[in-house]
From TrEMBL:
Domain of life, per lineage: Bacteria
Source species taxonomy: Bacteria, Pseudomonadati, Bacteroidota, Flavobacteriia, Flavobacteriales
Protein name: Uncharacterized protein
Length: 181
């Protein structure tokens, strides 16, 4: 297998191991499947995902990479670009880092759900592109908490990504537009 193919498989595998990564890889593969040079085979790989299907996913991705004549550098660059713009993949990764895999998966599964959470100011800034896209809505609850000890203010949980310093409490809601865009 060429170095570019190894790099692509390695990048997607490492991404899948991050919090929220499996869902992010699924979004990326489905997005790349719509690109003419990537073809439907890569989109099909995104449909295989399941907790017990990691090896099947790796095998399918390796098989696709071995058969394709596409310029893999373009695909790798597209993956990098997808992760730098407000995409479902990027939101999935970010919510996985903030909430943990299980809570993020449930939160991103249906519209109008909300989670009361204490967020670090930097994390709030990272969520801004998704607020602008109207995929999420963040409402302040006007409390401040010292982060780092699994603290709670009311029923607000503390974010996992940056559990240090001071945080403010919010209700994060996933909007219908996230599912429709």
């Amino acid at each position: 297998m060429s170095e570019e193919k190894d790099e692509l498989i390695d990048k997607l595998t490492k991404l899948s191991e991050k919090p929220g990564g499996k869902q992010a890889v699924r979004y990326i593969l489905n997005t790349l499947g719509a690109v003419p040079f990537a073809g439907g085979a890569i989109a099909g790989a995104g449909q295989l995902w399941g907790e017990k299907e990691q090896q099947k996913f790796n095998d399918t991705l390796a098989e696709w990479a071995a058969k394709t004549d596409s310029d893999l550098k373009i695909i790798t660059n597209n993956i990098d670009k997808l992760l730098q713009t407000p995409t479902r993949a990027k939101l999935s990764l970010l919510m996985g880092e903030i909430l943990g895999d299980e809570l993020a998966k449930g939160f991103l599964s249906k519209p109008n759900q909300y989670i009361p959470i204490a967020l670090h100011n930097q994390t709030l800034n990272e969520l801004e592109p998704f607020i602008e896209k109207s995929w999420i809505k963040i409402q302040p609850t006007h409390s401040t908490v010292q982060m780092g000890g699994g603290n709670r203010v009311g029923n607000n949980i503390e974010e996992l990504k940056r559990p240090y310093g001071f945080g403010s409490t919010f209700n994060i809601q996933i909007n219908e537009s996230y599912f429709n865009d």
